[in-house]
Design goal:
Layout lengths: L4 H31 L8 E2 L4 E3 L5 E3 H4 L5 E6 L4 H9 L1 H7 L5 E6 L6 H11 L4 E4 L4 H5 L7 E5 L4 E7 L5 H11 L20 H10 L1
Parallel strand pairs: 4-5, 5-6
Antiparallel strand pairs: 1-8, 2-3, 4-7, 7-8
């Protein structure tokens, strides 16, 4: 069989060119991967806002963050799972509030339901900050579509965790995420006075020992 040497040489040269190009491409990708700096995770900043709470006081997110991280949960009266999650988080809040954790329950109920919301919250005896987002401006700012949706905001104002939906047991995972972002010590460690205007006994004894 007669072989066209010129054609064979061109075919061989073309194959080598493809092989070399492939090696260079792969090597370049590998080198780029090695040289890519391992930076810190970049989190989305939480939109700041000011809203009224159920007591008529204005509350601003950025001011809350000075005291500790905020777990902001969007809820409304018809949302059974929203209420279930807020109920389930009570023990978590009780155990972590002294370390700066704050839970904000963002009601997106209509203005006409304000009285019902206040009565409901009072009956629940929730210790949380309950805000009224009656125009749903904050809900839209956080792109909330499904309820319940909650975001954990660290003290830098970054959204570090998002939880959508709720099923029994989720509070354990949520608590673990909360613990990651608590300050090492409370921001305000000033002794709290009791109803008689006195410092706690432990603080009194400490003061006596320092005199």
């Amino acid at each position: 069989m007669k072989v066209n040497r010129n054609g064979f040489c061109r075919l061989l040269a073309g194959g080598w060119a493809v092989a070399v190009s492939l090696i260079v491409f792969v090597s370049g990708r590998a080198l780029a991967a090695e040289e890519k700096p391992k930076g810190k995770t970049r989190y989305e900043m939480a939109p700041d806002f000011t809203l009224r709470d159920v007591n008529g006081e204005e509350v601003t997110l950025s001011e809350l963050l000075k005291n500790g991280p905020v777990y902001l949960e969007t809820w409304d009266l018809p949302c059974v799972n929203c209420v279930a999650e807020l109920d389930a988080l009570l023990p978590v809040y009780d155990s972590l509030k002294s370390r700066g954790l704050q839970i904000v329950a963002l009601s997106v109920d209509k203005p006409s339901d304000e009285a019902r919301v206040k009565a409901f919250v009072k009956a629940k005896k929730w210790p949380y900050i309950v805000l009224l987002d009656q125009q749903q401006k904050v809900k839209k700012a956080y792109n909330v579509i499904i309820k319940p949706t909650a975001v954990l905001i660290n003290m830098k104002g970054e959204i570090v965790y998002t939880h959508i939906g709720y099923k029994k047991g989720d509070e354990k995972r949520i608590a673990e995420e909360m613990k990651k972002w608590l300050p090492e010590k409370p921001v305000d460690d000033t002794p709290v006075e009791n109803d008689r205007g006195e410092e706690p006994e432990g603080e009194q004894e400490k003061g006596k020992g320092q005199q």
